[in-house]
Amino acid sequence: MSHYNKQYGSVLSIVLFLYILTLQIGAQTAVRFGAVGDFDDDSNTQAVADLISSWNPDFVITQGDNNYGSGSVAAWDDEVGQFYGQFIQYPSGSTSAYAPGPAVNQFFPSLGNHDWDAGISGWYNYFELPGNERYYEFIQGPVHFFVVDSDDNEPDGITSNSTQGQWLQTQLASSTSVWKIVYFHHPPYSSSSNHGNTPELQWPFQSWGATAVLAGHDHVYERILKNGFPYFVNGLGGRSLYGFSSTPEPGSVVRYNSNYGAMLIEANVDSINFSFYSIAGGGTLIDTYTILASPTSITNDQNKMVNEYSLHANYPNPFNQGTTIIFEVPDRSEGTQVDLAIYNALGKTVRRLIKGSLAGGEHKIIWQGDNDQGQLVSSGVYFLRLKSDSFVQTRKMIMMR
Predict the structure, then answer these.
(1) pLDDT at 296
(2) What is the gyration radius of the CA atoms in the chain, in angstroms?
(3) For residue range 144-157, what is the model confidence (pLDDT) as tens digits?
(4) Which of the listed residues 83, 198, 199, 315 has the most CB atoms within 10 Å of its CB?
(5) Is residue 313 part of a domain?
(6) Which of 271, 292, 313 is the last residue of a domain?
(7) 132 in the same domain as 152
(8) Predicted pLDDT at 376
(9) CATH assignment of the domain containing 328
(10) Residues 6+ away with beta carbon under 8 Å from 339
(11) How far apart are CA 165 and CA 149, in angstroms?
């Protein structure tokens, strides 16, 4: 081979390497994943699994009670593998009908009481998870996940001062990720009439640095805010439907138990959005909630009385770095559902700034000129749109690099 060809080949290799690296870095800045809890080997579970698959998620997490059967591989296949086997990287030598699975694991379950009833040895045989496999952590993109074993069979305890509790406090404190999600089976807070609150799991998650807590066990969907911190009960994966108590848990914002469903969670370095979809109609949005990373959310002036929506002109405009966006939403006891996004001249979504429930008042956000993948957009005309149930307003923006 000539010296020219060798040089050309080296350049191609470098270019290819840089391209792959760029894709990997891009993939690390934003993730979308499904969250599901309490499912069984029936058509309801299949409908929920189909809904999750339709989202094309990067991975799936579970809030426990994955297996209501026995601990055999065949039973785990019936309860889990037939629905989510395409996400599971099986242990070497696994006899699962769905082995070996993907090259990289995309399924991260948490233990529930029925999983313990099936036998912990079956859990170890079926999955290959980090750490001791009962409670563990992993990172995907800007999200650090902490999986807790909330069952009282856990040998390292389930109270905040237990070995497991101290592990979580230490790992949360050392995490440098933008988002820190804790999930497990038994809900710290729940308005369900079946199980309800689990006092021993009411750990100081917020003060330890967590972003949100997801749980299952009660076969309902519920979003509860405690001191502004979100707790989700996500137990409608297919097993059965539970009722609600006549007296909701204080802080309960949304309660749903009419059909089965799952959560779609989308995160980038600036925001994380939690949505719950029912299987009705192939996927019906029931609830959505967005948390913004500081300093994207600059102010929320709830002292300013607001009776109607308003989207102000961004400033500066034109701009070449960041631009400030101010908008107002009316006061409502249950919060206000808003969608604030930036579109290009072709009408394609470039950056979704907010999609979820906001408190009434004046809000101020700085857009740094990046898209949902964290990449800077090019010069041109863009459109800022604020949309809610009965309101739409659009503003023109000009980016000049």
Answers:
(1) 42
(2) 23
(3) 999 999 999 999 99
(4) 83
(5) yes
(6) 292
(7) yes
(8) 82
(9) 2.60.40.4070
(10) 352, 354, 355, 385, 386, 387, 388
(11) 10
